[in-house]
């Protein structure tokens, strides 16, 4: 197992020590045993007691493991289904971003997705062709006719 994950498991274990017994009881004993066996006990991590979990200095892997624990063991069936559906959508969007080189950005106000292409290559510009107005063409032709006759 990677060292980052064993450190993250240690951090998760410490966080779980501060949670309610009701929440801890929902986590299977096999999973808790797995965490005890695979955590890095040499990793130094201290949880600040009066600070919310979001503001703690947690590793990215720790946050991911906590999210998985919540999804798989703690939340209700309806919420689990919603989370799994959202996760599938995110995976599809990520694959499309990689495949088509597109960024999907969610507009928070309208809750709609907007697509923004990523330009990795230099743009090739063509010569801009301006179309002349019809009356300018007419005036120029009149001047040409007058010049020729003079």
Along the chain, the helix and strand elements come as HHHHHEEH
* Percent of residues in helices: 55-70%
Instruction: Indicate the radius of gyration in whole angstroms.
Output: 31 Å
Strand order within the widest beta sheet: 1-2
Largest sheet: 2 strands, antiparallel
**Percent of residues in β-strands:** 5-15%
The number of helical runs is: 6
Tell me the overall shape. Answer: rod-shaped
Mean pLDDT: 81
Number of domains: 2
Please identify the structural class as seen in this structure.
mainly alpha
How would you characterize this protein structure?
The chain has 150 residues and is mainly alpha-helical. The chain has two domains: 72 residues, no CATH class; 62 residues, no CATH class. 57% of the residues lie in helices and 8% in strands. It has six helices and two strands, in the order αααααββα. A two-stranded antiparallel ribbon has the order 1-2. α1 crosses α3 and α1 packs across α4. The longest helix is centred in the middle third of the chain and has 24 residues. The chain starts with a helix and ends with a helix. The model has no long low-confidence stretch (mean pLDDT 81).
What is the compact description of this entry?
The protein is mainly alpha-helical. It is built from six helices and two strands; from the N terminus they run αααααββα.
Q: What's the layout of helices and strands?
A:
Elements lengths: L2 H15 L3 H6 L2 H10 L21 H15 L2 H24 L1 E6 L4 E6 L16 H16 L1
Antiparallel strand pairs: 1-2
Helix pairs in contact: 1-3, 1-4
């Amino acid at each position: 197992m990677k060292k980052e994950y064993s450190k993250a498991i240690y951090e998760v274990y410490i966080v779980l020590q501060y949670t309610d017994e009701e929440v801890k009881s929902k986590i299977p004993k096999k999973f808790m045993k797995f965490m005890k066996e695979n955590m890095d006990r040499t990793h130094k991590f201290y949880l600040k007691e009066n600070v919310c979990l979001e503001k703690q200095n947690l590793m990215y892997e720790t946050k991911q493991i906590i999210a998985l624990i919540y999804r798989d063991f703690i939340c209700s069936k309806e919420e689990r289904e919603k989370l799994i559906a959202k996760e599938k959508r995110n995976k599809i969007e990520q694959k499309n971003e990689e495949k088509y080189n597109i960024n999907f950005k969610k507009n928070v106000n309208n809750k709609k997705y907007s697509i923004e292409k990523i330009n990795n290559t230099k743009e090739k510009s063509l010569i801009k062709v301006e179309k002349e107005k019809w009356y300018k063409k007419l005036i120029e032709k009149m001047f040409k006719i007058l010049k020729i006759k003079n």
